[in-house]
Structure formats: C-alpha cells, structure tokens
Amino acid sequence: MISYTNIKTDSSEYQAERELRNEILLRPIGLPDFAWEMCDKKADHIVALLDGGVVGCAVLCPTEANQGVAQLMQMAVRKDLQGHGIGTGLVKFLINFARQKNLTEVTCHARQEAVSFYERLGFEIYGTPFEEAGISHRHMRYSLLTN
Description:
Radius of gyration: 14 Å
CATH class: Alpha Beta
Distance between the termini: 27 Å
CATH architecture: 3-Layer(aba) Sandwich
Number of domains: 1
Oligomer: single chain
Strand order of the largest sheet: 1-2-3-4-5-7-6
C-alpha cells in the first residue's frame, strides 16, 4: 500500500528522493545530477512510500513574490509504477498539505505532455507557453480558495 508523507532534508528518504529525481527528471534530458536543488532547503518534500522505499516525490517550494503561493516542482514517480495513481496521490496530498499551511495557491511549470494530468486535478493554465530546460512547458495554478 502506498503512503504519502512530508520528509525533512536530513532524512534517508530525502537521499532516495534526490536519486529518483535525477533518474526520472534530469538524466533523460541531459542535465547533471542534483542540478535542480536550488530551493530544496526551504521547500517541503512530499514522498510516496511503498514498503518503506521512496517511489514518488514532489517538492513544494515557497515563492519569493507572494507568501501565500508555493510552486510544485520536481515531481517524479518510479518508471515501473507510473500510471498507477501515485502521481495523483502525490498531488492530492500536496494540495491538502498546502491548505494546512494556509497557502492560497499552488503553481507549477507543467511539461506540455503533463498538462492534461494537472487539468484533471483542478489546475488551470495561465500565461503563454514557454521553454524550460529545452522542453515546452505551461504555467499552471491551483486555487486553494475556490477548489
């Protein structure tokens, strides 16, 4: 059974999360390991656990411009478990966690192929398409005030 929790950066689960992000997100697009850890120390780290091992993760990073807003970043699910609802569970847990922190909005930079996934979970597109790390993305947001 999958469980979801918030972890600290001094935990063994954090090291497993870092490796999962490297394997699923960074290496496939040619970025060096640990290249997207710029906000790890100030962020909340949500992980999906199966038999005590990290099989999915998402980072919730506070934005500097607005204290009520945080960005969902670096979401990854182990390749052999993708398509089994773990990503949906991660986002739902993260949204509830954000509500408990009294945030008003969660944003994300969604890869173009993930836009429909986020839309199904209540996120909406705003702004124009953009490129990040050589990949087409969309700005998306989830209002914690209206959803």
